[in-house]
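User: Last request for today: this protein with uridine-diphosphate-N-acetylglucosamine, please.
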Amino acid sequence: MLKKIFILVGTRPNFIKITQFEKQFKRYAGKIEYKLIHTGQHFDKNMSEVFFEQLEIKEPDYYLNISSGSPNSQIGNIILELEKVFLKDRPDLLIVVGDVNSTMAGAIAANKLAIKLAHLESGLRSMDRTMPEEHNRVVTDVLADYYFITEDSGIKNLSHAGVENERLFFVGNTMIDTLVAFDQNIRDSDALESHSLKKGEYVLMTMHRPSNVDHQVGCKKIIELIKFISRYKKIVFPIHPRALKNFEKYGLSNELKAINDLILLEPLDYLSFQQLVLYSSLVVTDSGGIQEETTFRQVPCLTLRPNTERPITISMGSNKLLEFDLELIKKEIELIQKGQNKKGEIPPLWDGRATERIVDIIAKSIL
Ligand code: UD1
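Assistant: Here's the final one, the structure of the complex with uridine-diphosphate-N-acetylglucosamine:
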């Protein structure tokens, strides 16, 4: 009998982790039917639609249209809307991705209807319960049946939590699959040219975590940091809607926009952003996924957070965790200018074939 597998996505970082599934599920055409559900957590054209277009992701079979709201209303609405979908079109397996609110909501909705659950990128832990994503990771991993793991810390964390070995699958990283699949398109993008940038002459920055941008002190510190970095290099900052809203709310957006040598951009499409990563001298971020993309590209990355859920990017990759301390950041920039920064290595199984492995594991198990 035909088996139904649904993937649930909701945010920008989810979209870029599922681009190769359609192709891989096609190998099981006639045996597996694959459908895509988009919660609508990210809804702006440049946070969502543009990724579907560029990355050739199929049109969602269901769009839940939940958009903004408090985390509780987001999660509650997703659960209610998913239940409606599942009651009329019940999958044999739901795949949820990463650590966002949509992920946890999907896990709960599936669990309450006794639908099997697979978690992509499971086992990552920052051990920091002040991060909303950490709750999402922990809850999703308690409810999952299949655990698809990107790095060895995931195996350790899940084993420690008592998950049986047979349910742990170390498969690599589907976000890297997308980088590999679209590598030529990334190189062909006109991002540098359109902003009159040259390879290696700029720093790329992203900042959007609540702990950095949801208060005035944090926004002021970011301005101070940009001013500081711009003494050495041009700085490119594609700003997330949540960060921009907060700069406006705290009356700091004019000061931000007036900084010399700052190229302030709207959120970028995937190919442009990845070209900027590839050719930057340094990436400064508070994102989760960008730590992995810079590790794969062997581009130096400073993550301005007290912890990371992706420790392989530090132990093997080009990532460093740093406090928001201008002196420390200056030292790092000097190292990079002298070419003495660590290049790192590419972690095991980050080879562009994780999705293929996952689909084979699922097919073997459910067919
Ligand atoms: C979410 C994820 C975070 C991820 C980030 C990547 C959770 C808990 N957090 O954070 O892990 O790193 O996505 O982008 O799920 N907004 C828009 N347009 C959009 C999307 C959001 O204006 O397309 C606004 C929302 O209305 C809200 C704010 O941005 O005011 C935050 O959006 P939300 O989806 O709640 O979380 P993110 O900060 O994007």
